[in-house]
Write a structure and sequence with these properties.
heterotrimer, A mainly alpha (335), B mainly alpha (291), C alpha/beta (404), B: 291 residues, mainly alpha, ABC transporter involved in vitamin B12 uptake, BtuC, two-stranded antiparallel ribbon, 2 strands, globular, C: 404 residues, alpha/beta, Rossmann fold, four-stranded parallel beta sheet, three-stranded parallel beta sheet
């Protein structure tokens, strides 16, 4: 058991080191571009998991928060006249705060509903945000879009700061997610997922807990959206409050394993580079959508709990099958 | 004033189409407790099937239903058995993903065979109209509306006046109890999904005649359909119809009186307001259920 | 495949080095090059994407028949951007740094051109583009963009406004109705036309801006019909252009004149949906199949030879894409090289002949002092220029005939 724990920590350190050194190992912009979007989804999936995975409340409207964060940063930069460069990154937490406030309002309302209704209500709120972005032309530029200041960095270097920003946010999301899991708050969330009424009966403050998870999840997504807007330099309502982004992050969590820590990361690491690569090489034939859907369906039907839990179960079963090695008295392996 | 009246009439006519599409969706939810986010794509598929049939066989779009409805029904049986039935755990959440994957697959295939150009079902009478008072009403809208009424009427007849309909309703009320009294819930589910697909085919024809569409059109459709069934109450057929009419009439009147810009916004505002006071929707039932 | 591209890249850079060294056009056949384009092959802009590819491919074919671009045989590489920002940004980065294409051409729409242009500028590539002309394209402070169309987008309806105001007072429309998408391409044109016509005494009976994401245009079309305006000016793309016309037919609303900003210029994609009812509908256009601009007759016949159909089926997008190629060919010949930096400098001065007429670009890449955009009208199943008289193939049909 101790060996497994040490291996795990060593593995995490190695992965993190690789992630940190990536721009040095593979500095070509095509790779770092994919890295930026991939790290973005690692963060998004982990953040979404805090709500969807721990409480079991599936939100399909998180793209609304993504877009809101994007627009907030863009408007801040425009109105404060901030120059392009490293400074805008410092304003990202402000976008996160604003998104948190928005999520408080939406969550107060949406969390009055349960299960299937909740899913659809989140979708409704997402479309409302998109419509507002589209129609409040004086504020957001409407269909004409909103521009971000463009840093004067060279083509070879440009992607690197954004990559580190995304890495930082992804690490933050993972850190928060890990911390929640080990806390009473996290226990409460899992209780809500298992049986909300019993949790309520036992004394878990379900409403406050659900709202907190929702707000935290939304704030992280908002900050990631802000960095995204700054990276693509120009945003439009329909591309930044985009249902596809919302559903992609959900897909990744389900693929990797709902409610686990490494699941969302794995899901993002598999799906995002695959999606970008497939679209680049097969978009023309329009069959890439079919390929994507096929892979998807295969995974869901074969590994319905996601990769990480299924692998864990597989490893556990193998371990149970091999008899204890040492003759010294061993504890019976509990299933 | 005439304009408002005209918008209201338009709202009722298009509301009928959405009612038809939403009824299939809510039936599927009621029987299987799954959210079929691929329903929009199925409607578009129905529209394309009619498009292909009318183009190659020279049939009137409405007549193609004779072919497309049975085809879609059988397709529904197949899809349900292959993709939905295997889902045992985490049903609601996984069903969202599976049906979304199906929608993507359908979109990809349609794009491959028909390209992404916008098309529209054509009938020789599709611009003909007749006057009512000061304004004119288009024939195709009326035909579509009558078709929806007919199909919805048949659905009600089946649900409330046949034994099979009774088993569907029983499954909707309580799946386990239905199983206990001997109803083959798997068969009921498959047939319900088939019915949902058939109604999607019909909805597809009316949708396809009145609006230009391409494989990507399903996103808009599904967001509105989902909002409608939640407003009406998940699983309630009556609710879906009432909700569709309310939504479309309000939207069209808003477009004309205030601005088209806020018309779709009104859609969602109504949903939010109703849910504030009745979280289960207009005709829904408050159930204690596990998430 | 990759090896061949690598070889091409090495050869191309070798040539560039040689060109920078001051030598003139190479005498031996030069290495083949790849030109990369991100095109909307799926998503909202896919119909236009297809037409762009037709134009680019035809140009590449014609160039190769002449021996290539400065002797370099061309291979076009298209990647799909699914009409999305994320993908277009990825695509141009991949094309430039991974596939190491020698040149890039622009995608469809101002929407996608703006984020793409920032990426392309980072690598100091020239960015000649056929379809991004909205005002924001040019206010980003970039110098590598070249919008290959005869006039800046907001001036597209100026010819039409001039024509209406030139009509004798008793024939002139008394009122006008305006409806436009909030798209960066359609709205500026309509707004400018509105201010010109209002200044000329034509009352505004109705004005509405609607979201580009609208799917049901009937309520808006009903309101336009209800305004009973004499002139109807619509800022549309293809789907809404068709939808508005259909509603007008259903409502039997017959204004004296109708003009749509896009749609009627898309050849068969438009006429296929309206049949005989295209009669009399106008569209601002810099190009028609019958125009006598540079190389146009050859373009039209080559197009029909390659893709079939008739000249009325050709979409203006294809002509715009072809023009991009023509401009690059002429600039490269003038500069004696296909090096991007040289192309950028060269393109900022001089006039270039295309199937859309002569054009030149100002410091930000906007077309300047140009030919302007004319009125094209459907008459007898063909779209022809009708104004101004210097290019007109027939007189404008006014008032528009009633719907069939």
């Amino acid at each position: 058991m101790l060996q497994a724990g040490v291996l795990k920590i060593a593995g995490i350190i190695v992965l993190f080191a690789i992630a940190l050194a990536l721009p040095a190992i593979a500095p070509d912009p095509a790779t770092t571009n994919i890295a930026v979007f991939t790290m973005m989804y690692v963060g998004l999936a982990t953040a979404w998991n805090i709500m969807g995975g721990y409480t079991g409340y599936i939100s399909l409207g998180h793209a609304g928060f993504f877009g809101f964060g994007s627009y907030t940063l863009g408007l801040l930069l425009a109105h404060l006249g901030v120059a392009a460069g490293y400074t805008p990154f410092l304003l990202v937490p402000v976008a996160g705060l604003a998104t948190a406030v928005l999520a408080l309002g939406i969550g107060w309302f949406a969390l009055r509903t349960r299960a299937a209704t909740f899913v659809i209500v989140t979708i409704a709120f997402m479309f409302m945000l998109q419509l507002l972005a589209e129609n409040l032309v004086g504020l957001t530029g409407g269909g004409g879009g909103l521009g971000f200041p463009v840093p004067p960095w060279s083509g070879d270097y440009f992607n690197t700061p954004y990559y580190y920003a995304m890495l930082a946010l992804a690490t933050l999301a993972l850190g928060i997610s890990w911390r929640i899991r080990r806390s009473k708050f996290g226990l409460g969330l899992l209780a809500i997922r298992d049986d909300e009424d019993k949790a309520l009966a036992v004394g878990v403050p379900t409403r406050a807990f659900k709202l907190t998870a929702f707000v935290v999840s939304a704030a992280l997504v908002g900050m990631i959206g802000a960095v995204y807007g700054y990276y693509v330099t120009y945003i439009y309502p329909q591309f930044v409050v985009d249902p596809l982004i919302g559903i992609s992050m959900v897909l990744m969590v389900f693929l990797g394993g709902l409610g686990t820590l490494s699941g969302p990361v794995l899901g993002a690491l598999i799906l995002e580079p695959a999606q970008l690569w497939l679209a680049y090489n097969y978009g023309a034939s329009r069959l890439y959508l079919v390929l994507y859907a096929a892979v998807f369906l295969a995974v869901i039907l074969v590994l319905p709990r996601g990769i990480v839990p299924s692998l864990t179960v597989l490893i556990e079963r193998r371990r149970m099958r091999t008899p204890p090695a040492a003759p010294a008295p061993q504890q019976a392996v509990m299933p | 004033m005439t304009l408002v009246l005209e918008a209201a009439v338009l709202g009722v006519l298009t509301g009928g189409v959405y009612a038809l599409m939403a009824s299939g969706l809510t039936l599927i939810f009621g029987v299987m407790r799954i959210i079929n986010v691929g329903h929009g794509a199925l409607v578009v598929l129905g529209a394309y099937l009619s498009f292909a049939a009318s183009r190659s066989l020279g049939m009137d779009p409405f007549v193609t239903l004779v072919i497309t409805m049975p085809v879609m029904f059988v397709l529904g049986l197949v899809l349900q058995s292959v993709f939905i039935r295997p889902l045992k755990t985490d049903r609601e959440a996984l069903s969202v993903l599976v049906t979304y994957a199906l929608a993507l697959g359908i979109e990809g295939l349609l794009g491959y065979f028909f390209t992404a150009n916008y098309v529209q079902l054509k009938a020789w009478y599709d611009t003909a109209s007749f006057p009512i008072g000061d304004f004119r009403v288009t024939y195709v809208y009326v035909f579509g509306f009558l078709l929806c009424l007919a199909i919805l009427g048949v659905m009600f007849l089946v649900l409330y006046h046949t034994t099979f309909g009774a088993s569907i309703r029983a499954t909707m009320l309580n799946r386990t109890a239905a199983q206990l009294i001997g109803i083959d819930v798997d068969r009921v589910s498959a047939v319900a999904f088939g019915i949902g697909m058939a109604t999607a085919a019909a909805g597809g024809v009316v949708f396809g005649i009145t609006t230009a569409f391409n494989p990507g059109s399903h996103y808009d459709l599904i967001s509105r359909l989902l909002t409608i069934i939640v407003l009406g109450g998940l699983g309630s057929l009556r609710g879906a119809i009432v909700a569709a009419l309310i939504m479309l009439v309000s939207e069209d009147i808003t477009a004309v009186v205030i601005s088209p810009v806020w018309a779709s916004f009104v859609f969602f505002v109504i949903l939010v307001l109703v849910l504030l006071f009745r979280p289960q929707g207009l005709y829904g039932v408050r159930v204690r259920e596990r998430i | 495949m990759r090896r061949r591209l690598m070889a091409a890249a090495v050869a191309a850079s070798g040539l560039v080095a040689a060109a920078c060294g001051g030598s003139t056009t190479p005498t031996a056949p030069a290495a083949p090059i790849t030109i990369g384009v991100s095109v909307s092959q799926t998503g909202d802009f896919s119909g236009d994407g297809k037409a762009l590819i037709q134009g680019y491919d035809l140009w590449a074919q014609d160039e190769n028949a002449k021996g290539g671009l400065l002797g370099h045989k061309i291979t076009m590489k298209y990647v799909d951007d699914a009409s999305s920002t994320q993908q277009v940004v990825t695509n141009y980065q991949n094309l430039i740094t991974l596939d190491k294409v020698a040149l890039v051409f622009g995608p469809f729409s101002s929407l996608l051109t703006i984020p793409a242009s920032t990426v392309v500028a980072r690598y100091n590539y020239a960015f000649p583009e056929p379809a991004g002309g909205g005002p924001h394209v040019f206010d980003r402070g970039l110098t590598n963009i070249f919008f290959v169309q005869p006039a800046a987008v907001e001036d597209n309806l100026v010819s039409y406004a001039q024509w209406l105001l030139s009509l004798p007072a008793d024939q002139r429309p008394a009122s006008a109705a305006y409806a436009t998408q909030d798209d960066p391409f359609t709205q500026p044109q309509v707004d400018k036309a509105k201010s010109l016509l209002e200044a000329g005494g034509i009352k505004t009976a109705y004005y509405k801006v609607y979201p580009a994401e609208t799917t049901d245009f009937t309520p808006i079309a009903l309101q336009v019909a209800n305004s009973k305006a004499d002139a109807v000016i619509l800022g549309t793309q293809l789907p809404d252009a068709v939808a508005f016309a259909k509603t007008f037919i259903q409502q039997q609303f017959n204004p004296k004149t109708i003009i749509e900003t896009t749609g009627p210029d898309q050849g068969a994609d438009y006429s296929g949906k309206l049949g005989a009812n295209t009669e009399g509908i106008m569209v601002p256009a810099g190009w028609t199949a019958d125009a006598t601009a540079y190389g146009n007759d050859k373009f039209v016949s080559a197009f029909i030879a390659k893709y079939g159909g008739t000249s009325a089926d050709i979409s203006a997008d294809a002509a715009e894409a072809y023009s991009v190629g023509q401009v690059v060919d002429e600039a490269a010949t003038k500069a004696g090289s296909i090096d991007n930096a040289k192309l950028i400098t060269t393109l900022h001065s001089g006039t270039y002949q295309t199937v859309q007429g002569p054009m030149s670009f100002d410091a930000t890449g906007k077309p300047q002092g140009g030919v302007g955009v004319y009125i094209e009208q459907w008459q007898g199943g063909k779209a022809i220029f009708v104004y101004p008289a210097s290019v007109a193939a027939a007189k404008p049909e006014y008032p528009k005939n009633t719907w069939k």
